[in-house]
Amino acid sequence: MGLRASKVLVLGGGAGVAAYVWPNPRMDQQESFRWDQDGFNHGPFAFELDPCDKYDFAGTGRSNAADWIRTAYHDMATYNVADGTGGMDSSIRFKEEQSRAENVGDSFSNTLRVLDRDASSYVSIADILALALIISMENCGGPEIDYRAGRVDAMEPNVAGVPEPQNDLDSHIASFARQGFTQEEMIGLVACGHSFGGVQHDAFPDIVPDLGDPNNTHSNAAFDSTFVHFDNNMYVEFMDGTTANPLVVGTNDTTNSDKRIFSSDGNVTMRAFAESPTLFASTCASLFARMIDTVPRGVQLTEVIKPLPVKPHAFMTTYIGNGQLTLEGDIRLWNLTENLNRTVRIVWLNSDGSTSDDNAVELLHSENQVGSALGGRITSMWYSLHNATSSQSFLTLDAAKSNSISKFSVLIDEGNGSGPRVEDQGGIGFRIEDTLMWSSSSCAPTFGTGRLDIAVRKGTSPSRVWVEVDAFSFDLGNVPIEPNAYNASLVEPQAGDDEPYEIWRVDINGEVDLFVDYGIYAEVNGVRIMAVGVRNGGDLDSCTDAPESPF
Ligand code: HEM
């Protein structure tokens, strides 16, 4: 089936209009972190929350989820609505902020040790902290929370301003007003946050004694009886007088900040939360979204990131010589359940716009190719262009005849007789850049030198070809995450006229990092183009094993 037929089907099929058009490397990465939470091709968060009392450090009684939620709040709480400074900008990563009395405890350094390595030039550390909060909530009983991307990492600490338990009620009201929240919203936000975790002896020995419990070596006195799960139990327990929340029934009333805050409107909000779990959940969803969207003035966040209904993932083109290239990758179908009768095919247009009946291939799927989000409330099904029986990619295209590929559509047939529906981003198609791509002759250094070979279609005449890699450090401190560029040079002499691609090369002298992704770019007629797919340094053959460069 050709693309012309596909388009007709799309118009009749009413496919949803996506929020952004694939490919868009930044949004693709953000969307994946936000929605590919668990299972096949999962992102970095939900794994650390399974089960919800998982704690990556020594001792018992604490959880990653509680640390992550508290960290996001303490990062945001420096916001000053009057001058637009502070807010979610990951300034909590600076040791100077962490050493303040208002940030006592190791929640923040723990959180950053687990998560900051997932940041990149596409996803800031502040975005990571926001994602960690929402995915903790969503995977541990809480509601879906809107997520926008684009937070910018601060380069220095913010002015202090996180509320502390010994502050009086007027200070708390003033502090939340400075952060941009009313008194009623303050009650809600504290109530929502304190659905998780508790107060630990190490950080607050005056509030919580050493509990001497071998199953709770941190002596973490929980806010409610279900402290690794989002629910309204704390408010039920608060209203019926059975609460053990150490910030409500602590022996020193000065540090009973939750008690003062919760009862500051005559228990109106708490009573409503106790009576209605759904009101509580929806209030928390909107307050948390507001909280993570509290960013320094001038920072522009994206639209709320919705899942693409059909999403190519880890697509990559590779030139393998002799006029041939391969295309590999996976396709995610969002919010579907398993159906072993379903077939998924891609059909594509050649680079010159022509097509033929041969331009279609069925994708592979096995029962372990299932992803999930929102704690399993949504499942996604994955289909693969990889050939299960061979290490070579399934789709091999002949570029010599200049038929290559320019874009494709996805045809999904549920096998129920209703015929295939077509997904092509509202008629745009999924565009594949075949002007430049990796060459399979790229290799990592075994001892010293390696090379990144880039195939550029002859006649393209780029003014520049280069490789980018994120500057990366496990201790980011005040180092911005920015891409470093390495310019490529045209390899001379080139192979014969029948080779449709020429090779450009970056010589790497001990600099191939096995843990980072390399992206390739070219500037053509003043326009920057990016190859489909990044290649991880760890996936490169060593130079002794790599195929010889054709040139
Ligand atoms: C007046 C405002 C607040 C005060 C005085 C306050 C105070 C505290 C204190 C003293 C702890 C114990 C920390 C530890 O032992 O490590 C704590 C824990 C926590 N707070 Fe707050 N908090 C406030 C607001 C919030 C807000 C708005 C959120 C989230 C939106 C939040 C989320 C958390 C979480 C999740 C924990 C549990 C940490 C864990 O168990 O590791 N707090 N809070």
UniProtKB/TrEMBL annotation:
Residues 115-332 form the Plant heme peroxidase family profile domain. PROSITE patterns: PEROXIDASE_4. InterPro entries: Ccp1-like, Haem_peroxidase, Haem_peroxidase_sf, Peroxidase_I. It holds the Pfam family peroxidase. Keywords: Heme, Iron, Metal-binding, Oxidoreductase, Peroxidase. GO terms for biological process: cellular response to oxidative stress; hydrogen peroxide catabolic process; response to reactive oxygen species. One of its GO terms (molecular function) is heme binding. Its EC number is 1.11.1.-. Destroys radicals which are normally produced within the cells and which are toxic to biological systems. PANTHER family: HEME PEROXIDASE (PTHR31356:SF53), THYLAKOID LUMENAL 29 KDA PROTEIN, CHLOROPLASTIC-RELATED (PTHR31356). Belongs to the peroxidase family. Cytochrome c peroxidase subfamily. This is Peroxidase. It comes from Exidia glandulosa HHB12029.
